[in-house]
Design brief:
single chain, mainly beta, ten-stranded antiparallel β-sheet, 44% strand
Length: 457
């Protein structure tokens, strides 16, 4: 039947099939989450200033130097400023070194990679490289950290800045925000889509509880916005398209590199009532999930299943494991790298790299029988259609251009292979349909369609 609905002008953007935003109709296909591949273990927390509870990892690529920030040893109870923050570095995202910062003594020596010590921010320090074109060079790095319990489900979140990512300074002794618990990895970044800063933070959903005590309720995510990083307006709790309530221990929210209009989040999902801990006996198991948004507030839960399972390693079933690090690193022509904690609270606690197909977090998938997906009307321009796809040796994809009345205006030949982006060749040249609002129909068999774009080859 003829495609309908709102016309979507994607310009030259990469549009991933992680939701139904572009989809008008689908039959014989499904949207499928694609689990990442566990790769090398890039870090074991075995230095004296680290511990088996090191965590809250952030990974940043600064002009080819990849910095990994993480909490080191915690010498005082949770909520007291007894933690340290460390920084490791890499050029390839695989081999990380701990360059000595020389800033703080630990056991009488400054030969360590500690960059913060003895402040509440060190508990959950989370930095970002500021993409705001108006940001002053001395503040090109910014960060949030701290929680300091001050009342029923309330804490204090501080702001910091740095010119080099190593030497950090507080904006003020006054916190940036107080309306939240913040006892997790709170995330801030400059949102180029809106020209504002965003912060996604931990709070406890306790609207059904009478006289809620601290740490009671369901761990959840709320967000704030700011024009200057100093004055924040509460934007509200995350909103979801499903009624199910799950505990999100962390959120790891960001805009996708190379497709910044896609907001992605990788929460660590916490199941406090389960226990499969063969080592410490602590309650609670965790995995990682994936969700996406088009505006940063309304979140799509098309994929309710796990993005990363604990797996065969029994140490990953220990309480509070499988925490995705914040950050997506471009580590090759075909690959994104992310990182995840493992073996928490055991002697081999550390970080493992995850390999992800570039723009391949999810896909339109068809099995051995042919299916199809039809997009909403798209505005055609000058550039050729490119697809990010994979087929089996026997599978294929075929693309058709569909008019407003449902007629076939053009079609490609049979496409098979495995490419991050490959031009689709139609009978008419690129630009022939410029300015027209037409739909694309993809026929698939034993194939995955990850993303599309109208772009240069």
């Amino acid at each position: 039947r003829p495609p309908g609905g709102i016309v979507v002008d994607i310009g030259t953007r990469v549009e991933m099939f992680i939701d139904r935003h572009l989809i008008h109709e689908m039959s014989g296909c499904c949207l499928k989450i694609n689990q990442p591949v566990r790769m090398e273990k890039v870090m074991v927390f075995d230095r004296p200033w680290e511990s088996d509870t090191s965590g809250y990892i952030t990974v940043i690529n600064d002009n080819g130097l990849i910095r990994m920030y993480y909490r080191g040893i915690t010498e005082s109870p949770d909520g007291v400023s007894g933690a340290v923050t460390c920084c490791a570095c890499s050029r390839d995202g695989i081999t990380f070194e701990r360059p000595a910062s020389g800033l703080f003594e630990f056991n009488g020596s400054r030969d360590n990679n500690i960059i913060l010590k003895g402040v509440p921010e060190a508990h959950n320090f989370t930095p970002f490289l500021d993409s705001n074109p108006l940001a002053h060079p001395s503040m090109r790095y910014k960060a949030v950290g701290g929680h300091e319990h001050t009342g029923a489900n309330k804490g204090r979140l501080f702001g910091l800045y740095s010119d080099d990512g190593i030497m950090w300074h507080r904006f003020s002794d006054e916190p940036l925000m107080t309306d939240g618990m913040f006892d997790s990895q709170n995330v801030a970044f400059f949102d180029n889509n809106t020209g504002m800063y965003r912060c996604y933070a931990r709070y406890f959903e306790n609207s059904g509880l009478e006289n809620p005590a601290p740490y009671k309720g369901i761990r959840a995510i709320k967000s704030f916005v700011s024009l200057d990083f100093i004055h924040w307006t509460e934007a509200g709790n995350n909103l979801y398209d499903v009624p199910a309530t799950e505990e999100f221990y962390t959120n790891a929210t960001l805009c996708c590199p190379g497709a910044g209009h896609h907001y992605l989040s990788f929460p660590k999902r916490f199941m406090p009532g389960r226990n499969r801990d063969f080592f410490t006996g602590a309650d609670g198991v965790s995995d990682a999930v994936f969700m996406s948004s088009r505006d940063g507030m309304h979140w799509d839960r098309t994929f309710m299943e796990a993005w990363v399972r604990p797996g065969l390693d029994r140490k990953n079933w220990v309480n509070r494991n499988n925490m995705p690090a914040l950050g997506i690193i471009d580590t090759g022509e075909n690959e994104f790298s992310m990182y995840i904690s493992e073996n928490y609270r055991t002697p081999t606690s550390g970080i493992r790299r995850l390999s992800i197909r570039k723009f391949g977090f999810a896909s339109v998938h068809a099995g051995s029988e042919t299916g199809y997906v039809v997009t909403k009307p798209l505005v055609f321009g000058d550039h050729p259609l490119q697809i990010n796809y994979s087929t089996s040796a026997a599978g294929h994809i075929k693309a058709l251009i569909i008019g407003p009345d449902g007629s076939i205006l053009d079609e490609s030949g049979i496409i098979y292979g495995d490419e991050i982006f490959e031009e689709v060749v139609f009978n008419k040249p690129a630009g022939f349909y410029k300015g027209r609002e037409l739909s694309l129909r993809f026929e698939l068999r034993d194939a995955d369609l990850y993303a599309i774009r109208f772009g240069e080859v």
